[in-house]
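In this section we walk through a basic example: taking a raw amino acid sequence and producing a predicted 3D structure, encoded as discrete structure tokens. The instruction is simple. Fold the sequence below.
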Amino acid sequence: MTDFPRPPAHGSLSSWDDYPVHQVAETVRHAATSDRNFYDRYYFNCHANDGSAFLVMGLGQYPNLAVQDAFACVVVGDEHRVVRASRELGDRMDTSVGPLRVEVLEPLVSLRVVCEPNDESDISFDLTWRGAMPAFEEPRQYVRRHGRVLFDTMRLAQTGRWSGTLRCGDHTFEVAPDRWWGTRDRSWGVRPVGEEEPPGIRAGGQMTGFWNYVPVQFDDHSLLYMLNELDDGSRVLEEAVRVWADPGRDPEWLGRPEHDAVLTPGTRYIERSTLRFPDAPGGAFEVSVEPLLDCWLMHGTGYGLDPDWRHGMWQGPLVVEGRSMDYGAQRGELFGLVDQVARVTQSGGVADGAVGHGLHEFFFIDGFARYGLVGWEPAPT
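The resulting token sequence is shown next.
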């Protein structure tokens, strides 16, 4: 038997091309669009249900920028630690970057995420995810602005539970599925990534209004809630669905969701929230959201605040870095997208009194008059 070498570096064949997965007349290495903002990403969060620790991890590929990068952010109390890595994208089947990697054990059911011990940070983990509900296809997000497609993305979402070990600084956590839950998503398509482009007529922002994403799980079902509401009350995107853990039960759409958030005076921070589903099958109900632990996700991870490190930005053949900050010392300077571990309680409907846990994610982008936000100013005191 001949031991053939791997495809030459100047070609475009890769491991995936031996699988029947092609969608266009290109090798898998190449996306169907040449848009620089095409991406393909994993997002995971893993949280102790008592709010003692929170891990957020992501890995993305950007074929038209020839970059693959990843990050892991761990929050314990006010301690915020990040390890991040970036390299040149090669074979798209290789989902590893420096010490970080993602392994698909059973598609749409079970995955493994790993951060090997490294010199750049004191974060390491070996964790296995198992879905608590069938993976769910979320609505497509499509936004065209001034002639150009700004967003054209697809995403799957899934709640689940974790097992393994997480280490961060002096903390070691034995992660068990009865008390460590979380959410993951897979998204792909076109959205702004990498270096800033000359904005021209598009100056003034990419997304505006109120972004609110709340995937949470209970013993026998999960709720997926998502919206992007503009300052005038119109909605670019909304979703509210109940997905049962039993795969034999169909998902139930809950109608138009409503929100009632309470902001800390003088800030843009949500300290508690109530979500309402007045048209839900089985009867109207509401969900009270009690945040337990914050992760200011845009700090150090590549989501946009660091001018020298954004998702898809070229850093070199391989670069690994660590970052850290203390919320207590810098809380007055914190800004951006917030991911919260939250305890949630249902009132009314078919699951009256059910208590669950999950993610409460929010970001006010520019003004939102309903909550007293004018431009980028904080809420009135």
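Looking at the output, two observations stand out. The mean pLDDT is 93. The CA atoms of residues 215 and 221 lie 11 Å apart. In the next section we compare this with other chains.
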